[in-house]
Amino acid sequence: MKMVHNYLSYAYMIFTIFLIIFSSLQCQAQLSPEFYDKTCPNASNCIRTAIRDAVSRDRRIAASLMRLHFHDCFVQGCDGSILLDDTPSMSSEKFARNNNNSLRGYDVINNAKAQVESICPGVVSCADILTLAVRDASVAMGGPSWTVKLGRRDSTSANRSLADAILPGASASLESLISLFGSKGLSARDMVALSGSHTIGQARCVTFSGRIYNNASTDIDPGFATIRRRQCPPPGNVDGSGNLVPLDLVTPNSFDNNYFKNLLQKKGLLQSDQVLFNGGSTDNIVSEYSRNPSIFISDFASAMVKMADIEPLTGSQGQIRRVCNLVN
Length: 328
Known about the structure:
Elements: H1 2-30, H2 43-57, H3 61-73, H4 106-119, H5 126-140, H6 160-166, H7 174-183, H8 188-195, E1 202-204, H9 209-212, H10 222-229, E2 244-246, H11 258-264, H12 271-274, H13 283-291, H14 293-307
Antiparallel strand pairs: 1-2
Helix pairs in contact: 2-4, 2-5, 3-5, 4-5, 8-14, 11-13, 13-14
Protein backbone atom coordinates (compact mmCIF):
# COMPACT_ATOMS: atom_id res chain seq x y z
CA MET A 1 0.00 0.00 0.00
CA LYS A 2 2.81 2.38 0.84
CA MET A 3 4.40 1.73 -2.57
CA VAL A 4 1.09 2.41 -4.31
CA HIS A 5 0.64 5.61 -2.31
CA ASN A 6 4.12 6.81 -3.23
CA TYR A 7 3.50 5.99 -6.88
CA LEU A 8 0.23 7.91 -6.88
CA SER A 9 1.87 10.90 -5.18
CA TYR A 10 4.68 10.88 -7.74
CA ALA A 11 2.19 10.57 -10.61
CA TYR A 12 0.14 13.44 -9.21
CA MET A 13 3.24 15.63 -8.93
CA ILE A 14 4.21 14.91 -12.55
CA PHE A 15 0.66 15.61 -13.70
CA THR A 16 0.61 18.93 -11.82
CA ILE A 17 3.90 20.01 -13.36
CA PHE A 18 2.58 19.07 -16.79
CA LEU A 19 -0.54 21.17 -16.27
CA ILE A 20 1.52 24.19 -15.22
CA ILE A 21 3.78 23.89 -18.27
CA PHE A 22 0.85 23.26 -20.59
CA SER A 23 -1.05 26.24 -19.19
CA SER A 24 1.98 28.49 -19.66
CA LEU A 25 2.49 27.33 -23.24
CA GLN A 26 -1.21 27.71 -23.96
CA CYS A 27 -1.12 31.32 -22.76
CA GLN A 28 1.87 32.06 -24.96
CA ALA A 29 0.25 30.42 -27.96
CA GLN A 30 -2.84 32.57 -27.62
CA LEU A 31 -0.85 35.71 -28.42
CA SER A 32 -0.97 36.46 -32.14
CA PRO A 33 -0.28 39.44 -34.43
CA GLU A 34 -3.71 38.82 -35.98
CA PHE A 35 -5.61 38.76 -32.68
CA TYR A 36 -7.75 41.84 -33.46
CA ASP A 37 -8.00 41.40 -37.24
CA LYS A 38 -11.71 40.55 -37.06
CA THR A 39 -12.78 42.24 -33.83
CA CYS A 40 -10.99 45.59 -34.31
CA PRO A 41 -9.08 45.69 -37.61
CA ASN A 42 -8.26 49.40 -37.36
CA ALA A 43 -6.86 49.27 -33.84
CA SER A 44 -3.17 49.27 -34.83
CA ASN A 45 -3.58 52.20 -37.22
CA CYS A 46 -5.51 54.15 -34.61
CA ILE A 47 -2.82 53.61 -31.97
CA ARG A 48 -0.02 54.36 -34.43
CA THR A 49 -1.58 57.74 -35.27
CA ALA A 50 -2.00 58.63 -31.59
CA ILE A 51 1.63 57.78 -30.82
CA ARG A 52 3.02 59.62 -33.84
CA ASP A 53 1.10 62.72 -32.78
CA ALA A 54 2.39 62.42 -29.22
CA VAL A 55 6.02 62.02 -30.33
CA SER A 56 5.73 64.95 -32.74
CA ARG A 57 4.65 67.13 -29.81
CA ASP A 58 7.23 65.78 -27.37
CA ARG A 59 10.22 63.77 -28.62
CA ARG A 60 11.06 62.72 -25.08
CA ILE A 61 7.80 60.77 -24.77
CA ALA A 62 9.16 57.92 -26.92
CA ALA A 63 11.77 57.01 -24.30
CA SER A 64 9.20 57.50 -21.54
CA LEU A 65 6.85 54.98 -23.16
CA MET A 66 9.67 52.44 -23.49
CA ARG A 67 10.44 52.78 -19.79
CA LEU A 68 6.75 52.57 -18.90
CA HIS A 69 6.47 49.29 -20.83
CA PHE A 70 9.59 47.87 -19.17
CA HIS A 71 8.35 48.75 -15.68
CA ASP A 72 4.99 47.18 -16.49
CA CYS A 73 6.31 43.89 -17.83
CA PHE A 74 8.82 43.29 -15.03
CA VAL A 75 6.14 43.54 -12.32
CA GLN A 76 3.70 40.61 -12.58
CA GLY A 77 4.02 40.52 -16.37
CA CYS A 78 2.88 42.68 -19.30
CA ASP A 79 -0.61 43.24 -17.91
CA GLY A 80 -1.06 47.02 -17.79
CA SER A 81 -0.84 47.03 -13.97
CA ILE A 82 1.53 50.03 -14.09
CA LEU A 83 -1.34 52.12 -15.48
CA LEU A 84 -3.68 51.64 -12.51
CA ASP A 85 -4.33 54.49 -10.07
CA ASP A 86 -4.34 54.25 -6.30
CA THR A 87 -7.64 53.15 -4.73
CA PRO A 88 -8.66 52.59 -1.08
CA SER A 89 -8.00 48.87 -1.58
CA MET A 90 -5.02 48.97 -3.95
CA SER A 91 -1.59 50.63 -3.88
CA SER A 92 -0.61 51.82 -7.35
CA GLU A 93 2.73 50.87 -8.86
CA LYS A 94 2.96 54.47 -10.05
CA PHE A 95 4.21 55.44 -6.60
CA ALA A 96 6.82 52.71 -6.20
CA ARG A 97 10.32 53.91 -5.36
CA ASN A 98 11.68 53.86 -8.93
CA ASN A 99 8.42 55.05 -10.52
CA ASN A 100 7.21 57.97 -8.42
CA ASN A 101 7.83 61.35 -10.06
CA SER A 102 9.79 59.49 -12.71
CA LEU A 103 7.53 57.50 -15.04
CA ARG A 104 5.41 59.39 -17.53
CA GLY A 105 3.32 58.75 -20.62
CA TYR A 106 0.15 57.65 -18.84
CA ASP A 107 -1.83 60.37 -20.59
CA VAL A 108 -0.59 59.20 -23.99
CA ILE A 109 -1.79 55.64 -23.35
CA ASN A 110 -5.09 56.90 -21.94
CA ASN A 111 -5.61 58.98 -25.07
CA ALA A 112 -4.78 56.07 -27.38
CA LYS A 113 -7.20 53.89 -25.42
CA ALA A 114 -9.96 56.49 -25.78
CA GLN A 115 -9.37 56.61 -29.54
CA VAL A 116 -9.59 52.82 -29.82
CA GLU A 117 -12.66 52.67 -27.56
CA SER A 118 -14.42 55.08 -29.93
CA ILE A 119 -14.19 52.54 -32.76
CA CYS A 120 -14.15 49.21 -30.87
CA PRO A 121 -15.46 49.55 -27.32
CA GLY A 122 -14.38 46.88 -24.87
CA VAL A 123 -12.16 44.95 -27.30
CA VAL A 124 -8.51 46.06 -27.10
CA SER A 125 -6.65 45.81 -23.80
CA CYS A 126 -4.54 48.56 -22.29
CA ALA A 127 -1.67 46.07 -22.04
CA ASP A 128 -1.75 45.57 -25.82
CA ILE A 129 -2.07 49.30 -26.46
CA LEU A 130 1.06 49.94 -24.40
CA THR A 131 2.92 47.16 -26.22
CA LEU A 132 1.98 48.56 -29.64
CA ALA A 133 2.72 52.11 -28.52
CA VAL A 134 6.33 51.26 -27.71
CA ARG A 135 6.90 49.78 -31.17
CA ASP A 136 5.34 52.83 -32.80
CA ALA A 137 7.37 55.20 -30.62
CA SER A 138 10.58 53.44 -31.69
CA VAL A 139 9.70 53.85 -35.36
CA ALA A 140 8.79 57.52 -34.83
CA MET A 141 12.32 58.10 -33.46
CA GLY A 142 14.02 56.36 -36.39
CA GLY A 143 14.39 53.10 -34.49
CA PRO A 144 13.41 49.57 -35.48
CA SER A 145 10.00 48.08 -36.00
CA TRP A 146 8.96 44.56 -35.03
CA THR A 147 5.93 42.31 -35.16
CA VAL A 148 3.82 42.69 -32.02
CA LYS A 149 1.91 39.66 -30.78
CA LEU A 150 -1.47 40.61 -29.32
CA GLY A 151 -4.13 39.15 -27.09
CA ARG A 152 -3.00 40.29 -23.63
CA ARG A 153 -5.64 41.12 -21.08
CA ASP A 154 -5.49 43.69 -18.30
CA SER A 155 -4.74 42.99 -14.67
CA THR A 156 -7.32 43.82 -12.03
CA SER A 157 -4.61 44.52 -9.47
CA ALA A 158 -1.28 46.28 -9.03
CA ASN A 159 1.71 45.25 -6.92
CA ARG A 160 3.63 48.17 -5.47
CA SER A 161 5.62 46.03 -3.04
CA LEU A 162 6.94 43.89 -5.90
CA ALA A 163 7.77 47.02 -7.91
CA ASP A 164 9.71 48.37 -4.93
CA ALA A 165 11.55 45.08 -4.57
CA ILE A 166 12.67 44.28 -8.11
CA LEU A 167 12.76 47.34 -10.36
CA PRO A 168 16.43 48.34 -10.82
CA GLY A 169 17.67 51.76 -9.81
CA ALA A 170 20.24 54.01 -11.46
CA SER A 171 23.05 52.52 -9.38
CA ALA A 172 22.26 48.84 -10.01
CA SER A 173 25.23 46.51 -10.38
CA LEU A 174 25.89 44.38 -13.44
CA GLU A 175 25.32 41.20 -11.45
CA SER A 176 21.93 42.36 -10.18
CA LEU A 177 20.84 43.43 -13.67
CA ILE A 178 21.83 40.10 -15.22
CA SER A 179 20.04 38.25 -12.41
CA LEU A 180 16.86 40.31 -12.71
CA PHE A 181 16.62 40.00 -16.47
CA GLY A 182 17.46 36.32 -16.25
CA SER A 183 14.57 35.77 -13.85
CA LYS A 184 12.29 37.08 -16.60
CA GLY A 185 13.70 34.80 -19.27
CA LEU A 186 15.95 37.45 -20.80
CA SER A 187 19.66 36.87 -21.42
CA ALA A 188 22.54 39.22 -20.65
CA ARG A 189 22.61 40.04 -24.36
CA ASP A 190 18.90 40.92 -24.26
CA MET A 191 19.59 43.13 -21.24
CA VAL A 192 22.38 45.04 -22.99
CA ALA A 193 20.29 45.46 -26.14
CA LEU A 194 17.31 46.77 -24.17
CA SER A 195 19.58 49.16 -22.27
CA GLY A 196 20.32 50.66 -25.68
CA SER A 197 16.96 52.43 -25.42
CA HIS A 198 18.97 54.97 -23.40
CA THR A 199 20.21 56.25 -26.73
CA ILE A 200 17.15 58.51 -26.41
CA GLY A 201 15.52 60.07 -23.36
CA GLN A 202 16.65 62.03 -20.35
CA ALA A 203 17.47 61.50 -16.68
CA ARG A 204 17.02 63.62 -13.58
CA CYS A 205 20.16 64.99 -11.96
CA VAL A 206 19.31 63.33 -8.66
CA THR A 207 19.82 59.90 -10.27
CA PHE A 208 23.48 60.52 -11.18
CA SER A 209 24.76 63.59 -9.32
CA GLY A 210 26.79 61.47 -6.91
CA ARG A 211 28.52 59.87 -9.86
CA ILE A 212 29.61 63.09 -11.59
CA TYR A 213 30.79 64.70 -8.34
CA ASN A 214 32.82 61.68 -7.20
CA ASN A 215 36.37 62.84 -7.94
CA ALA A 216 37.73 59.43 -6.98
CA SER A 217 35.64 57.62 -9.57
CA THR A 218 37.66 55.84 -12.25
CA ASP A 219 34.74 54.70 -14.42
CA ILE A 220 33.71 58.13 -15.72
CA ASP A 221 35.53 60.44 -18.11
CA PRO A 222 36.61 63.57 -16.13
CA GLY A 223 35.74 65.97 -18.95
CA PHE A 224 32.32 64.37 -19.35
CA ALA A 225 31.69 64.71 -15.62
CA THR A 226 32.69 68.38 -15.72
CA ILE A 227 30.23 69.11 -18.54
CA ARG A 228 27.43 67.39 -16.66
CA ARG A 229 28.15 69.38 -13.48
CA ARG A 230 27.23 72.56 -15.33
CA GLN A 231 23.65 71.31 -15.52
CA CYS A 232 23.37 69.54 -12.16
CA PRO A 233 24.00 70.60 -8.55
CA PRO A 234 26.00 68.50 -6.06
CA PRO A 235 24.25 65.72 -4.14
CA GLY A 236 22.00 67.02 -1.40
CA ASN A 237 21.28 70.30 -3.17
CA VAL A 238 17.52 70.31 -3.69
CA ASP A 239 17.53 73.19 -6.16
CA GLY A 240 18.16 71.74 -9.60
CA SER A 241 18.18 68.10 -8.49
CA GLY A 242 15.17 67.50 -10.73
CA ASN A 243 16.79 69.03 -13.79
CA LEU A 244 16.68 66.81 -16.86
CA VAL A 245 19.66 66.11 -19.09
CA PRO A 246 19.99 63.82 -22.14
CA LEU A 247 21.24 60.29 -21.53
CA ASP A 248 23.15 60.58 -24.81
CA LEU A 249 24.80 63.98 -25.06
CA VAL A 250 25.77 63.56 -28.74
CA THR A 251 22.58 62.41 -30.54
CA PRO A 252 19.85 62.64 -27.88
CA ASN A 253 16.94 62.53 -30.33
CA SER A 254 18.15 59.78 -32.65
CA PHE A 255 17.67 56.07 -32.07
CA ASP A 256 21.19 54.93 -32.93
CA ASN A 257 24.12 53.04 -31.38
CA ASN A 258 25.85 56.11 -29.95
CA TYR A 259 24.90 55.00 -26.44
CA PHE A 260 27.37 52.13 -26.74
CA LYS A 261 30.09 54.36 -28.18
CA ASN A 262 29.64 56.56 -25.11
CA LEU A 263 30.16 53.59 -22.79
CA LEU A 264 33.46 52.76 -24.47
CA GLN A 265 34.62 56.30 -23.63
CA LYS A 266 33.39 56.08 -20.01
CA LYS A 267 30.61 58.52 -20.79
CA GLY A 268 27.70 56.50 -19.48
CA LEU A 269 25.47 58.89 -17.56
CA LEU A 270 23.98 56.43 -15.06
CA GLN A 271 26.02 53.98 -13.05
CA SER A 272 23.71 51.23 -14.32
CA ASP A 273 24.72 52.24 -17.87
CA GLN A 274 28.49 52.25 -17.35
CA VAL A 275 28.52 48.87 -15.57
CA LEU A 276 27.75 47.32 -18.95
CA PHE A 277 31.29 48.27 -20.02
CA ASN A 278 33.54 48.24 -17.01
CA GLY A 279 35.64 45.12 -17.23
CA GLY A 280 32.72 42.73 -16.87
CA SER A 281 31.08 39.95 -18.85
CA THR A 282 29.08 42.28 -21.12
CA ASP A 283 32.02 44.34 -22.39
CA ASN A 284 32.20 42.33 -25.60
CA ILE A 285 28.50 42.88 -26.35
CA VAL A 286 28.83 46.65 -25.87
CA SER A 287 31.88 46.67 -28.15
CA GLU A 288 30.01 44.72 -30.81
CA TYR A 289 27.02 47.06 -30.74
CA SER A 290 29.28 50.11 -30.90
CA ARG A 291 30.87 48.76 -34.09
CA ASN A 292 27.79 47.34 -35.77
CA PRO A 293 24.54 49.32 -35.42
CA SER A 294 22.58 46.84 -37.55
CA ILE A 295 23.25 44.04 -35.06
CA PHE A 296 22.14 46.28 -32.19
CA ILE A 297 18.94 47.23 -34.02
CA SER A 298 18.14 43.60 -34.78
CA ASP A 299 18.87 42.44 -31.23
CA PHE A 300 16.88 45.30 -29.73
CA ALA A 301 13.79 44.39 -31.76
CA SER A 302 14.13 40.71 -30.81
CA ALA A 303 14.56 41.54 -27.13
CA MET A 304 11.48 43.78 -27.19
CA VAL A 305 9.42 40.88 -28.56
CA LYS A 306 10.76 38.60 -25.82
CA MET A 307 10.06 41.16 -23.09
CA ALA A 308 6.47 41.60 -24.27
CA ASP A 309 5.99 37.83 -23.78
CA ILE A 310 6.61 38.01 -20.02
CA GLU A 311 3.70 36.41 -18.14
CA PRO A 312 0.77 37.77 -20.20
CA LEU A 313 -2.81 37.38 -19.04
CA THR A 314 -4.82 35.69 -21.79
CA GLY A 315 -8.10 33.90 -22.40
CA SER A 316 -10.48 34.51 -19.51
CA GLN A 317 -7.79 35.92 -17.21
CA GLY A 318 -8.02 39.56 -16.15
CA GLN A 319 -10.31 41.87 -18.10
CA ILE A 320 -10.42 44.46 -20.88
CA ARG A 321 -10.47 47.76 -19.00
CA ARG A 322 -12.72 50.50 -20.30
CA VAL A 323 -10.21 53.10 -19.12
CA CYS A 324 -6.59 52.24 -18.46
CA ASN A 325 -6.20 53.75 -15.01
CA LEU A 326 -9.19 52.02 -13.40
CA VAL A 327 -10.46 48.49 -13.00
CA ASN A 328 -13.91 48.02 -14.53
